[in-house]
Amino acid sequence: MAEASILELHGLQDLLQILRSRGYRVMGPTVRDGVITVSDIANIDDLPRGVGDDQDAGHYRLRDRGDDALFGFAAPMQSAKSVFFPADELLWRGRRESEGFSTEPAEAPSEPVALIGVRSCDLAAVGVQDVVLSSRGFPDSRYVARREDAFVVATTCADPAGTCFCASMGTGPKPSAGYDIALTELLEPEHRFVAEAGSQAGADILAQLGTEPATSEDTSATEQLVTDAVASMGRIMRTDDLRNLLYSQAQSRHWDEVASRCLACQNCTMVCPTCFCTSVEDVSDLSGDLDERHRVWDSCFSQEYSRLHTNFVRDSTASRYRQWITHKLAAWTDQFGMSGCVGCGRCVTWCPAAIDITAEVAALRNSADQDREG
Amino acid sequence: MTATRTAPPPADPMLPRPFRVTRSHLDTDDTVTLSLEPLDGEPLDFAAGQFTMLHAFGIGEVPISISGDPTWPGPLTHTIRDVGSVTHALVTAQVGEVVGVRGPYGTGWATDAAAGGDVLLAAGGIGLAPLRPALWEIADRREDFGRVVLLYGARSPADVLFAHDLGRWADEHAIDVEITVDYAPPTWRGRVGPVTKLISRAGFDPPNTTALICGPEVMMTLTANALRGRGVPTDRLRLSMERNMKCGVGLCGHCQLREFFLCVDGPVLSYDRLAPLMDVWEF
Amino acid sequence: MRTIPELLTDSPFFHGLDKAVIDLVAGCATTARFDAGDMLFRAGQSADTFFVIRHGRVAVELRNPSRGTITLDTVHDGEVAGWSWLIPPYLWMFDARAIEPTSAVAFDGACLRGKCDRDPALGYALMRQVSQVMYERLQAARVQMLDLYGAPT
């Protein structure tokens, strides 16, 4: 772990400029349409200064913090997923020829992205997607290229929201790996950042910025901030024996109970930073001579997802909810050696029916305990 | 278990290779067997039980098991049933048309691991097509296996596939071929009834048998349970499972059966791993 | 020359039944032979007989004026054909035709019903065996009814 140093507010502005001058497309959190979302940012004025968030099951509101914190909020509506794994990606273009057809792969992603203000949970999610999309038999080459070219500035969460449970999942609130620079925002006695390099590229840029080493007061302030954040997590999820719990509850009547509330609207899968399911669509023009293959985000909550010939394997909402949560918390560990959940809480916040994954796990544990006793 | 052979992954596994239709044989009123030759001349090497993603230009892709003889150099062979827009385009493809091929993908039947014992193959309907390569792999080294039995259930005598091969396997390769149908006209002198009814009369030594089962999932479950009841070890009962597939390379997520990606961990899976999943509704 | 009780023990239907039971029911039985094409029974006729096939093959068929004849089931060595002798009004629902030269043991249905009425223990033992056959046939019929190999609808 590199030495911590201090980045002043103007240093953060300089950082953005350096990245832009090196050809990065600089993206970060910004307020838009009543939410904090990830978008292009030109300078630190575009960051959500003094903006905080209230999040709960089916509830998201921005609020005035009454201070100047630039990163004083928890999970933005979007994670880093849509930066590295676009919702619609052109794979190739085909053209009918006199003999058969020809195909031309779509152009590789051009501009490298510098992502500012990535939450620890979202950083962990990027790490999960790295395993899923690039470390197995057929890596997604465009994803790999985007990841290799990216520059990541992560931030510690000082203000977890009501739906946060990164502490339960071991993914936060302080980023531990996978970043080029990690920042912890301190507001007292002066507004500044404790910066740590996580890569050579990060170290080079910090050196270029000419930072001062952090004092022991700064580092203990950081540690206190993290301790306080852990203590104020909105939710808790017990993760012990989660895989066996979910596998053993496949026949539970609880799924019908959740299904009576779940709308199968797919919000949770859209906001989840680790969901990776896609569909492949061949799009033709009227002449039938051109064919574009697109890869688009898909969701296990849709009926079409499990189509088999003329029927659907998972016809009921109950089976689809079971599929999603069992995959996320159990099958994922068998497939990839880690949990699919990073505790960001988005599925809880953005569910119109206020379904809470942590509460559902608790309900299933109850159910399992009753089965054992009964 | 060396049950797969795949070409080295191309730069982009989502790019189809063009193959020309050199033959289209009408098997039944909705099933066709296509012979495909690669435009670039590079033959597609595969193991019995593997599948490819077949692409009808401008329409889409479907996963189809390879139904040809892996021991004999020749065209890529697929037996396809018309059940949707892509399969309809493939079934009606004319000789000379070009289709796209990606693959081969998936785990195969692993017939080499069955050597030294008896083999029982159970096919239901078009399920005989993915088993056909396994039968040819076995016939090619028949002396390495004990008794080999094929139990084949078809809808009716008119729906029996590969009649010519059935005759050759029985007459030339010492394979016991038993056929049954769900219903028949009075000219049929063979058996009528479910394929599981053929098991009690089949000559095989259950504890020393590898069973390869392919067909509709209900048929596979009933057959696997019946064979398990007879004493075939569950880790030697192999089923070819089917789910929706969009990519064939383990990335789109559609083909998941709990923790298994059927395009990578399957489609052939042993019953000891499948049993907890087969009884669960809508899994 | 084997006796009828000895022939009956070849059939799985009679496995697990006491020798005394087999001897008792054998009193209702005679041997029968059919050439290929002979009818064992026809739909609509009174169901007087219960067959245990020794060797051969019997097709269970239904004749349909618009569709012709369809074979629904085939009965093989050691299997039983017919149980309408057990259920009022004792009329066959299907045709049964030997499609190969077939030898069988034929039981007089009325004789069997009489013995079961007089000896409930015998009746119970026989009913258990018949229930087993009916259960397997029902399962098979349902699986066939699913038309698993038909085109997806």
What this model shows, in words?
The complex is a heterotrimer of chains A (374), B (283) and C (153). Helices cover 35% and strands 24% of the residues of chain A. With 374 residues, chain A is of the alpha+beta class. Chain A has two domains: 5-231, no CATH class; 242-373, no CATH class. In chain A, the strands form four sheets. Chain A has an eight-stranded mixed beta sheet, sandwiched between helices. A four-stranded antiparallel beta sheet of chain A has the order 7-6-14-13, with no helix packed on it. Chain A has a two-stranded antiparallel ribbon with strand order 4-5. In chain A, a hairpin with a 5-residue loop joins strand 13 and strand 14. The model of chain A has no long low-confidence stretch (mean pLDDT 95). With 283 residues, chain B is an alpha/beta fold. Chain B has two domains: 17-105, Beta Barrel (Elongation Factor Tu (Ef-tu), domain 3), CATH 2.40.30; 111-278, Rossmann fold, CATH 3.40.50. Chain B has helices at 85-91, 128-140, 163-172, 217-230, 271-278; strands spanning 17-26, 31-38, 51-56, 60-65, 76-81, 98-105, 118-124, 148-154, 175-181, 191-192, 209-214, 237-240, 256-257, 260-261, 268-270. The longest helix of chain B is centred in the last third of the chain and has 14 residues, at 217-230. The model of chain B is unreliable at 1-9 (pLDDT under 50). With 153 residues, chain C is of the alpha+beta class. Chain C has a four-stranded antiparallel beta sheet with strand order 1-8-3-6. The B-C interface holds B 30, 81-83, 124-126, 153-155, 159, 180, 182-186, 188-194, 196-197, 201, 215-216, 218-219, 222 and C 57, 59-61, 68-74, 76, 97, 99-100, 139-140, 143-144, 146-152.
User: What do we call the CATH homologous superfamily of chain C?
Assistant: Jelly Rolls
Oligomeric composition of the shown chains: heterotrimer
Which strand order does the major sheet of chain C show? 1-8-3-6
**Helix vs. strand class of chain B:** alpha/beta
In the CATH hierarchy, what is the class of chain C? Mainly Beta
CATH top level of the largest domain in chain B? Answer: Alpha Beta
Q: What's the name of the CATH homologous superfamily of the largest domain in chain B?
A: Nucleotide-binding domain of ferredoxin-NADP reductase (FNR) module
What would you call the shape of chain B?
globular
Unreliable spans of chain C are: none
Q: How many distinct domains of chain C?
A: 1
Q: How many β-strand runs of chain C?
A: 8
Chain-averaged pLDDT of chain B: 94
State the shape of chain C: globular
Kindly state the percentage of residues in helix of chain C: 25-40%
The biggest sheet of chain B, with number of strands, parallel, antiparallel or mixed sense and barrel status, is:
7 strands, mixed
State the share of residues found in helices of chain B, binned by percent. 10-25%
Which sheet architecture does the biggest sheet of chain C show? Answer: 4 strands, antiparallel
Order of helices and strands of chain C: HHEEEEEEEEHH
Which protein chains make the most extensive interface, counting residues with beta carbons within 8 Å of the other chain's beta carbons? A-B, 52 and 41 residues
Instruction: Pick out the low-confidence regions of chain B.
Output: 1-9
